[in-house]
Amino acid sequence: MSGTVRWGVLATGGIAARFTADLLAMNPGAEVVAVASRTEASAKAFAERFGIERAYGSWAELVADESVDVVYVATPHSAHREAAGLALEAGKHVLCEKAFTLNEREARELVDLARERGLFLMEAMWTYCNPLIRRMTELVRDGAIGEIRTVQADFGFAGTFGAGHRLRDPALGGGALLDLGVYPVSFAHLLLGEPDRVQADALLSPEGVDLNTGMLLGWESGATALLGCSIVGDLPTVASVTGTAGRIDFPQGFFHPDSFVLHRPGREPEKVTSGPGPQGLSGMQYEAAEVTRALLAGEKESPLVPLEGSLAVMRTLDAVRERVGVRYPADRI
């Protein structure tokens, strides 16, 4: 690949706009050359907003564009399998939003397809690419807090979602778990890997999606993770990692932090920050930079967001849904 990675953006919602703004602001080795939506009007409006040359009214036109190297899939997760699969079939590298898919089966299909075609594929778990999260994992790996004993993390807000909203629709992967719970689950996986035991309980909506979910994960090492997600309660959205020799606390918004505090016995708490950075960016520039780096290096997956890790997270999310009784139509295909 040449020195510039050419991106196509598939979907034009809020998350696509945030990603595109961050990508354009922070990555001189990348450019956005095309955008697609299900309607041409939406694509054209997005293209005008960000100065993108080509706008398409269908996904098929975008993935057929020979100038596009990599497609960023920003649809709701219910469409990830279709959209990412379409791009991979067309020979495009893919960055796909999280939750990766609706279930592990769909995720495995995408991973197998990417490997079969020799293409790059990555879940857009921007948390893993954040410099402070990477610093935290280095400290843990180097023994700064000893052996991990507990992880606590949650993500929730109180919203008013009518029966017709996508968060209440099982066919669209509705509920708190895939939209919000993927963050605390992925955080625990980053530190401890795939759990050996999964327990969960939830409040379900009349449609059968989870509104409020609590999870307890366990590992053979004796480590545990207490996790929560909600779309009916304003949770703290913080995280904490406790080891035998210390603790690391993340403030509200742990999944895209600008600081954390390291506590160790006999020492003053140490606040670690990322330092001053560009103003007005959301934090997605780090995952964009990682994809750009990997593609220019000829890599087929990112060491920061490995595909086997994304599959493991999907297995845990599947296990949680099984425990609480949430079923999507896609599970029965």
Describe this structure in words.
The chain has 333 residues and is an alpha/beta fold. Helices cover 35% and strands 24% of the residues. α5 runs antiparallel to α10 (307-324). The radius of gyration is 20 Å and the shape is globular.
Set out the fold topology:
Blueprint (H helix, E strand, L loop, with lengths): L4 E6 L3 H13 L3 E7 L3 H11 L3 E3 L2 H6 L5 E4 L6 H10 L3 E4 L7 H14 L3 E3 L2 H4 L1 H11 L6 E9 L19 H17 L4 E8 L5 E9 L5 E7 L8 E5 L2 E5 L8 E5 L6 E4 L11 H12 L10 H18 L9
Helix pairs in contact: 4-5, 5-10, 8-10
Helix-strand makeup class: alpha/beta
Return the average pLDDT rounded to an integer: 95
How much helical structure, as a percent, in the residues? 25-40%
Spatial order of the strands in the main sheet? 8-9-10-7-11-12-13-14
Number of strands: 14
N-C termini distance: 38 Å
Major β-sheet, in short? 8 strands, mixed
Strand content: 15-25%
SSE arrangement, N to C: EHEHEHEHEHEHHEHEEEEEEEHH
Low-confidence stretches: none
Question: Which word captures the global form?
Answer: globular
If helices are DSSP runs of H or I spanning 4 or more residues, what is the number of helices? Answer: 10
Radius of gyration, whole Å: 20 Å
